[in-house]
Amino acid sequence: MLRQAYTGDGASGPLTGPAQWSLALSAATGLSALCLPNAAMSHTTRRRTVALQYALALAGPAVAAVDFA
Fold first, then answer.
1. Structural domains of the chain, count
2. What is the mean pLDDT of the chain?
3. Residue 26 contacts by C-beta under 8 Å, 6 or more apart in sequence?
């Protein structure tokens, strides 16, 4: 996104916001899986939360790349 801002027309595409939200939600999801005690979250739910964290972390740059393609 930064390269596009400097070398392109200076305007980012419409998917920049969702890409940044995906990364922010990834961090929040990971922190919830890390910080919540075992009594509040089962092992299966924690596993799925971490999988969601990784999916969101990979989706952010992918959406940003599609935005500038």
1. 1
2. 85
3. 53, 54, 56, 57, 60
